[in-house]
Give the backbone structure.
Amino acid sequence: MTSERTDARPLQVRVADEIRWRIERGEYPPGMKLPTLDELAKENLCSLTVIRKAVDLLKQQGLVVSAQGKGSFVRERAKPRRHGIERYSRSRWRGGASILTAEAAQQGHTANQLIRELAAVPAPSEVAERLGIEPETLVWVRRRTTMIDGRPNQLADSYYEMHVVEGTRIMEEDTGPGGGFARLEEAGHEIAEIAEDWSTRMPTGPESVTLQLPPGTPVLDLIRTTYDSEGKAVEVMLTVIAGDMVGMSYRFPVPD
């Protein structure tokens, strides 16, 4: 009688796990073209149907991408940009650099942004709640797509009450040195506190296209609320971030 355990996983799952193991150990490095389906079927002693299902699983897991007429390839991983509390250091944006470009440069990346919309719009419910205003109240929005090393990495929409930004460059395409934080302080709103709420989900179709997401890649939702020294919320930013292009790195004192 054998003492080996029965592997109850479906065959396509076992095959996918075997290929993933080879990817993780570097036998199939990033960018490498996988063996053909026929070769994989022969190597794993299974049918082409099983191999196709296994490769589909790997695509869903974000490990493999396919190119029409060229085959399947091990997905090349983007180097993530780390988020930490030091990104909000006053010395950065008071010195003239925007948060995005300063953080990216420190980590060896290049960054820029494309303006999608500048407009007065009805406040979404999550924005109205954080700003302490009635839903549908007109607020100013700056919608941007930010790019890291030439690839879209996030959709960032910043909302402000109209009276906070009227007469400032926040209503213009170029906010000037130091970005929005610097303009808020010039308008008398000293930046004092920031709250971040994070969650993870799978992307919508339009988000996948805009962020150029490989199959199986999740997105992170970030809601950032910026408060001034009087405790008033002066900006709410709703952000959708490509899950393979971000990492979190925090160090802070333990609260009493």
About this structure: The chain has two domains: 11-74, 81-248.
